[in-house]
Amino acid sequence: MKFTLIKDVEVSSLLDFYGDILTQKQLEAALCYYNEDLSLSEIASNQGISRQGVRDAIKRAEVQLFYMENKLRLAVKFRSLMDGLEKIKAKTLRIRSINKNLLFSKEIQDCTEVIEKTILELSE
To answer: By the 8 A CB rule, do 77 and 63 touch?
Structure first.
């Protein structure tokens, strides 16, 4: 169960990065299945195709998504970037606290404000 949940979250994330490369049917089926938590039968009914057709579309989509991630590594790089920004943010807050409590420098305050603004812009 845990592995399935992790895979579901991963596929959902990969859809954000590579969904545009899928066919319309693959994208619709995968979005309904992974993001809207619809069953294969519900998706089949909505799309007017067989349950097996939906399953095949989702499996083909998964193969494409994992292939693209294996080649481009965009999701891994994005997660690494977000983790790095969180670390920078934490250290910036620490610098700001030390500056406020120990020595107060206007230059340090200005620098931390620029860093925090940049982190916010990159995180959007």
So the answer is: no
Closest CA to 116 of 98, 99, 97, 91: 91
- Over residues 76-86, mean pLDDT: 95
Cα 23 from Cα 113, distance rounded (Å):
44
Q: Kindly report, residue by residue over 88-121, the tens digit of the pLDDT.
A: 999 999 999 999 998 889 999 999 999 999 999 9
Q: How many CA atoms lie within 13 A of 107 on its CB side?
A: 0
How would you label 41-68 residue by residue, b for 16+ Cβ within 10 Å and e otherwise?
A: eebbeeeeeeeebbeebbebbbebbeeb
pLDDT single digits (tens) 28-67: 999 999 999 999 999 999 999 999 999 999 999 999 999 9
What are the tokens at 65? 């998504």
**1 pLDDT higher than 60:** no
Cα separation, 84 vs 80, in Å, equals: 6
Residue type at 102 in one-letter notation: L
